[in-house]
Amino acid sequence: MDKIGFARASDPPGLASTSFAILGLLTFGEMSGYDVGKLVNRTVGHFFSPAKSQIYSELRRLVGLGFATERKIQQEDRPNKRLYRITGEGEQALRQWLESVDVEPPVYKIPFLLKLFFAAHMPHETLIAQVKEELRQSREVLEGFEELEREMQDKDEMFFPYLVLQAGLAHNRSQVDWAEKVLAELEHRSHGHDSSASNRKD
Amino acid sequence: MDKIGFARASDPPGLASTSFAILGLLTFGEMSGYDVGKLVNRTVGHFFSPAKSQIYSELRRLVGLGFATERKIQQEDRPNKRLYRITGEGEQALRQWLESVDVEPPVYKIPFLLKLFFAAHMPHETLIAQVKEELRQSREVLEGFEELEREMQDKDEMFFPYLVLQAGLAHNRSQVDWAEKVLAELEHRSHGHDSSASNRKD
DNA sequence: TCAGCCATGTAATGGGTTACATGATTGA
DNA sequence: TCAATCATGTAACCCATTACATGGCTGA
Predict the structure, then answer these.
(1) Residue B201: which of A176, A143, A166, A142 has the closest Cα?
(2) Which one of A127, B6, B119, B157 counts the least CB within 10 Å of its CB?
């Protein structure tokens, strides 16, 4: 099945979407690698989270390609820093990427589901505890999103980020609902008649 | 914010969940790397998909740790192969991982949402086309899941995989609904009064 | 007064991907 | 008859993560 590649018939350097994430954030203004990291956390972090050090190397790469410029700032109390600014070429590259029809397929890596998949090999009680913990975490994330939603409401310049947030909200709500059902089902199974259960359509 | 690490105060080799995914699949019986790849596609592939070559290196690693054994099979018409079988130690390691409370946090990497986040930099029409395409794909995946659901229904040994599948179904349904709303909103905006829109609570 | 966070990054290492090989079989 | 798929894997490379550094500030 050999996953299709996405750096193919286009630019030879073939930037991946991580680079564009950072390039996109640079449209917010000139900033340091550290600033980019902070911005990532508050914006695209929930569906795209490069490690700090990768941010720095991506920034250098963007400079190398002419998509950003760098200028060094000496500081005394803080470590020196480099400020990056997107160039016209960079903006053009961003737009080109946005408009291109090929989108890299999403990647989901969810260790919890992996555990559940193999849960036949673990004690029932342990599983229940883990589902509860998962549920707790999902609810927590959901609350954070709802808070964000209130903040973004009616802010016109946030229109697209708001739509993205809606996707996150929908996802988390669906996972909370799901986890509740799973938990109920598992707890039901703990009591009494556990040998006659089956995946029947309710 | 420096992501917390998950190979910390435990076994020095510190296997990541990818290794356990493969170890878990080996509980289904002795098989080749190629077989593991096939199984991945049909089982955990939607929330965990290592590349082929990684499967091979993980298998070798598992052998090195004593969690699996390898035996070579000569073949004439096909390339030779190596068959891997989980060991008692491997089963124990798997169980230990399953029971441990720490779960690695999930990773979501969704380039489409990234594009949407920055969609202010692209033409409205292009965006609409891309949302449509995304919607189409989500529906396709959803149908595949629904098919799988029918196949797994009432199969008792599929109880946990069935629960996992439910998570996938819930997720995809939520994303289809979301995409439909987004599309409606965007199309509404194309016609007429586009300058007065805002993220108001409906 | 001391742990922890702010602020800024670099170095080392590993996880994971795409590209490369090979020969038989099957469907259009 | 020719491309696609099955069947099996290796080699090369890059993306990404965790660990390491450093010094001032801030809250308990």
Answers:
(1) A166
(2) B157
